[in-house]
Amino acid sequence: MLLKRFMLAVVLCSAFGFSHSESFAEVALEHKAPESVANLASGLLDAVVNISTSQTVKGTEQGDKTALPKVEEGAPFQEYFNDFFSPKNDKSELNQSRKVQSLGSGFVIDAEKGLIVTNNHVIADADEIEVNFTDGSKLKAKLLGKDAKTDLALLQVDPKAKKLTAVSFGDSDNARIGDWVMAIGNPFGLGGTVTVGIISARNRDISAGPYDDFIQTDAAINRGNSGGPLFDMNGKVIGINTAIISPSGGSIGIGFAIPSDMATSVLDQLKEFGETRRGSLAIRIQPVTQEIADSLKLPKAQGALVAGKIDDKTVDNSQLKDGDVIIRFGNHAIKDARELPRIVAESPVGKIVDVTILRNGQEKSVKVKLGRLKEKEVESDSSADNDHEGGNKKADEADTIHAMGMTLSEITDELRKRYHIKDGVNGVLVTAVSPNSAADEKRIRAGEVIVDINQQLVKTPEDVSKQLEQLRANGRKNALLMVAGEDGELRFVTLRLD
To answer: What is the rounded distance in angstroms from the CA atom of residue 331 to the CA atom of residue 494?
Structure first.
């Protein structure tokens, strides 16, 4: 029996990567959970606040019940919820304005100036913002600035009206998966709630915005925690709690926080300018797939592929070319296309940056001068279906060829007019695409223009034939096409040669 127990201990040590000389007690001391976070929490609670907002909304003609929020039977404060939201029988109240209130969380980052951080969605469209402190006092707040793309907002209260307690930001880049963290916030209106968990994952993209890079945690986060801090065990803020995944609306152990290293640069701009001023490379990019990597003879699928430039006189990107693959921006290695926009956006406007690219299989360093990103909605994907009327008609008065499921033609004046092709867009025109062909699978459509094949410009259908023959002769299985839409926006597409 003793021998069996000893063997079991050895197996467990091996499974967890411990040497035989290490004892379980030593391992437990090094990796154990915190016995208590009471001392840590007590010093932080006063800096965490509740954010209360009110908004005036117009009534509806019929008191639309379907638009009302739903609360499960037996939920906390249900009777107050029903009294507030239940439709009234008095028709005189219809079409009258009413105030809608909401609650969130926030935290003080500068006691002398009265600066408070929260989420943008907590205060969005609010007419009034009130900050509630742990001692029961309340102060009106004004909005200094907000940023919808990172979901951050900066508020200010009168620091002379109350003595404030502030917390400071930590280094989220050094936070590791498995580190203990503590969340403090205002879930369901219950202020000063403390929960503890670990960092479950890093660099999460949940499609909440263009710069998603969330910390995932299993510390309980619920509705009302939005805008509250996520602390490390040193009492430093390493994240701002923002979102949860939950089918029920309650915590299931999947919550997300904005990393402090991203938040601080945004908040500094909101403090100084009242808005964000992001850097811009004025280029269009797309992911580097394995097919594209093979076509460009890259060692692996990495980086961001330059798929065109955007007209911006504040930017100097003249040393970049379409088809370049950006693998490093300054000191940051670019793993994929999703990472580049965030890093560029965090860089100062006007900064000159060394950019490492792969061009024709060779690594090269170029310099770019950043401009200011125009804050606008993301443009629609040029690869989406955009067939024009008559898009499947064959070209008139122009020689055509058929290749890879496409009918290709030179661009005549008549065809340029028919397909609304912008002046300056040159190459070989796609006039028809066979259903279920390789081109159809990659959503190439009639009216688009093939600009080059494997970084070789093509001007006529014959140029296309020669390039494809050369690729087949070299044993290549795919062709890399640079395709332009009618407005000149570029994208790269790989097509099978068989």
So the answer is: 30
